[in-house]
Design a protein that fits this description.
This protein has one domain (3-214): Formyl transferase, N-terminal domain (Rossmann fold, 3-Layer(aba) Sandwich). The chain contains six helices and eleven strands. The chain has helices at residues 19-29, 47-54, 70-82, 100-105, 126-132, 168-191; strands spanning 8-14, 34-41, 59-61, 88-91, 110-114, 137-144, 154-161, 195-198, 201-204, 207-208, 213-214. Helix 2 (47-54) links the parallel strand 2 and strand 3 (59-61). Helix 1 runs parallel beside helix 6. Bound molecules: ligand NHR and glycinamide ribonucleotide. The site of ligand NHR has 16 residues, from strand 5.
Length: 215
Amino acid sequence: MTETQQKTSVVVLVSGSGTNLQALIDATANGAPFEIRGVISNRPGVRGLERATTADIPTRVIDHTEFPDRASFDAALAEAIDAFTPDLIVLAGFMRILTQAFVDRFAGRMLNIHPSLLPAFQGLHTHRRALEAGMREHGASVHFVTAELDGGPVIAQARVAVEQNDSESSLAVRVLQREHELLPKVVGWFAGGRLALRDERVWFDGQALETPIQC
Ligand code: NHR
Ligand code: GAR
């Protein structure tokens, strides 16, 4: 990237502690090819908002409980995002299901990090469900967001071995550590122009991915 080129601008959506947001902030402080233009939370007062403020990143709260339905919440969220004119939207621990209209508006430029080896364990409580299913391997995935919940094409995954004595929280901690490497890496690829969503597939360096990249 030359000096005169703008960095890829990112808006991060959070709902909670924001440790994945922190990993992105730390990456930008270490020369990553993207900048975080804004952080938006659907919940007031969460740690993710504090992390943004500490890093001098503008924040917005769009509290979903103040809207009568998903469509009106999503319209307000889209407006808040557009005010930052980002190249990319990253869902980092964002906990609201998004409508088809919202997803279509940002098609091909919205990523989510999900705490499972997709397509296994879409939805919530993934660590508990992986343990209950007796999985020996678990992990996290970054995918393009489509209307199908956690069903968009997967870009990359990080795998974690499940230990005999793992609890939901011990497993979550190890997966989260890997998320913190995985997410900045994939966002960096997008910023470098290496990633695209086309024909419902992930393209990486000009080739359609057959399987997710293993990180
Ligand atoms: N929206 C669409 N259209 N497609 C995806 O792939 C999405 C999405 C919105 C969020 C993140 C996802 C995850 O990684 C995500 C992917 C929330 C729920 C959920 O059930 C499920 C999956 C994800 C995020 N949310 C409840 C709801 O009614 C609320 C739960 C809560 O507030 O705690 O929206 O796991
Ligand atoms: C992460 O494990 C993320 O993958 C997961 O929530 C955690 C958020 O942590 N996301 C979801 O479950 C989305 N429904 P963080 O707020 O510390 O980044």
